[in-house]
Specification:
Blueprint lengths: L1 E5 L5 H13 L7 E5 L12 E2 L14 H9 L7 H14 L10 H23 L2 E4 L8 E5 L7 H11 L4 E5 L3 E5 L4 E5 L13 H11 L7 H7 L14 H17 L9 H12 L2 H5 L1 H8 L18 E2 L5 E5 L4 H6 L6 H13 L7 E4 L6 E4 L2 E4 L4 H18 L3 E5 L1 H8 L5 H4 L3 E4 L3 E6 L3 H5 L3 H24 L1
Parallel strand pairs: 1-2, 1-3, 5-6, 10-11, 10-14, 14-16
Antiparallel strand pairs: 4-5, 6-7, 7-8, 9-11, 12-13, 15-16
Helix pairs in contact: 2-4, 3-4, 4-5, 9-14, 13-18, 14-15
This protein binds uracil (URA).
């Protein structure tokens, strides 16, 4: 018997040198005992001689794929791996194409080992989690991870971490061997127990936040997830505490995602869209209100166009002194294509008349140009526009205002105030006041006429209608004085 001493369990260089000498000594696999330094010897093995030094001799002939196969297979935990690889090496001398025989028992066993090791190497690159250890007195911090590999992949995988985290001091501790990068070289030390590794650090919550934010409930396939992230790794992953509850809530979350309204673009996007839209629009259309109306017919700045019949643009005199701004078209306006033609429009018209204002001499428009609604049987129920929708539509109001140059804008209700001033106000605090708008000058605030439609009591309705008329008269007087 010949005994070969290997320096560590994945000592490919030691195995290769020994295999070359064994081949020249014509040793059969049965003649060899492979012994890894530090591992208990087989007590029942026959006494063995140490492999003699055999100098020179030609290198064994092997196909190109063999060294890589052996380098990976040797990292497998199967104690038979050294003998298996030596057997393959010997057979390759007579059968150079042996590795092509996938059904050969030795080839199959070796490639199964390679697959298992490759997979474990990949898992190590994915599931090592470093924890920060503060450096003492001017020493830079170190990052330490605990990992329990299924095979001997630490030395095989260490160069990946060296290249990835070249500027950090780090250690990966495992029960078999530890690897340290404290520059300029990788250093390996004996394995340790888990208590030598730091338990948690200040980045723990970041891992969890990151994981929760990339977890897509709509794509969850629990079996596939467990294949990718086998449960035996979970105990050392900070994010794993979240997994059960994320799985449990996944179905409900994905239903909610499907039902949720489309996400609106970020706040700055209307301005960006506006710039590109303005740059793309034919210059002649940007000149007057009619051209703008044509452009607005194709507006898709926010998702509201999808549920509406048409864009309801403003209408009135191009030199109007008063600009009335409502909230958004209702069901009736959506069908007629003109603002304030439905029930709220009729009250508005009556109030204007009583306040001595000619609608024909004014300009009437809305903060939002599409009807926001929710289908309910055969009816379409009005829904108030949200801030993103108001912001997305403000560009049109700015364009209308820039061409009209009114003396006074009259905001009818909270959405119009929001659009004209860019701020949200409590109506009861600002009603009857003049606010200023970054693009429309003076803004007089009053209620939206649909408020009157919602009042049940006829006395309340009359009183509030009279107050609305007073507001409109006051606005007319203010405009005269501007
Ligand atoms: N309400 C509004 O705000 N505008 C209209 O055009 C109709 C109803």
């Amino acid at each position: 018997m010949i005994r070969v001493d290997l320096a560590h369990p994945s000592d490919f260089d030691g195995w290769r040198e020994a295999a070359r000498r064994l081949l020249m000594a014509r040793a059969t696999p049965a003649d060899v005992v492979w012994q890894v330094k530090g591992e208990a010897a087989d007590l029942f093995a026959a006494p063995a001689d140490v492999l003699p030094d055999i100098e020179g001799g030609a290198a064994p002939r092997v196909p190109r794929a063999f060294p890589d196969l052996a380098r990976y297979a040797i990292c497998h935990r199967d104690p038979e791996r050294f003998a298996l690889l030596y057997r393959l090496l010997r057979r390759l001398q007579d059968q150079p194409r042996l590795l092509d025989l996938a059904t050969d028992d030795d080839v199959y066993a070796a490639s199964t080992m390679v697959k298992a090791v490759s997979r474990e190497r990949h898992k190590m690159t994915a599931f090592v989690r470093f924890r920060e250890l503060a450096g003492e007195d001017g020493v830079e911090p170190a990052f330490v991870a605990w990992f329990e590999p299924e095979h001997h992949v630490v030395r095989l995988t260490a160069p990946f971490f060296r290249d990835r985290f070249a500027n950090m001091r780090w250690s990966i501790l495992t029960p078999d061997v530890c690897v340290h990068w404290d520059r300029p070289a990788l250093r390996f030390t004996p394995g340790v127990t888990q208590d030598k590794a730091p338990a948690a650090d200040r980045l723990e919550d970041f891992w969890r936040t990151y994981y929760a934010s990339i977890f897509n409930p709509a794509r969850l396939k629990v079996a596939a997830m467990k294949r990718e992230m086998p449960m035996r790794y979970w105990k050392n992953l900070p994010e794993s505490s979240l997994i059960p509850s994320l799985i449990e809530r996944a179905e409900g979350r994905s239903v909610a995602m499907v039902e949720a309204a489309p996400t609106l673009a970020p706040r700055r996007s209307p301005r960006i869209v506006a710039r590109t839209e303005a740059a793309r629009a034919p210059a002649e259309l940007l000149e007057g209100l009619d051209g703008l109306r044509q452009l607005a017919a194709g507006c898709k700045r926010c998702p509201l166009w999808a549920n509406a019949t048409q864009t309801v643009f403003g209408e009135g005199q191009a030199d109007a002194e008063l600009l009335f701004v409502g909230e958004q078209p209702g069901d009736n306006e959506d069908l007629t294509g003109r603002p304030f033609t439905g029930p709220a429009g009729q009250i508005f018209d009556r109030a204007l008349a009583q306040a001595g204002i000619s609608r024909e001499r004014a300009y009437v428009t809305n903060a939002v140009k599409h009807f926001k609604n929710e289908p309910h049987g055969k009816r379409r129920l009005h829904k108030s526009p949200n801030v993103s929708e108001i912001n997305a539509c403000r560009w049109w109001l700015e364009q209308e205002t820039a061409r009209l140059k009114p003396r006074l804008a009259i905001a009818l209700g909270a959405s119009a105030v929001r659009s004209l001033t860019g701020e949200s106000h409590v109506m009861s605090h600002v009603r009857g006041q003049v606010l200023s708008s970054p693009f429309a000058g003076h803004v007089f605030v009053t209620i939206h006429p649909s408020y009157l439609l919602r009042l049940q009591d006829s006395e309340d309705r009359e009183r509030e209608f009279a107050a609305f008329v007073r507001d409109l008269s006051k606005a007319r007087e203010i405009a005269c004085g501007i």
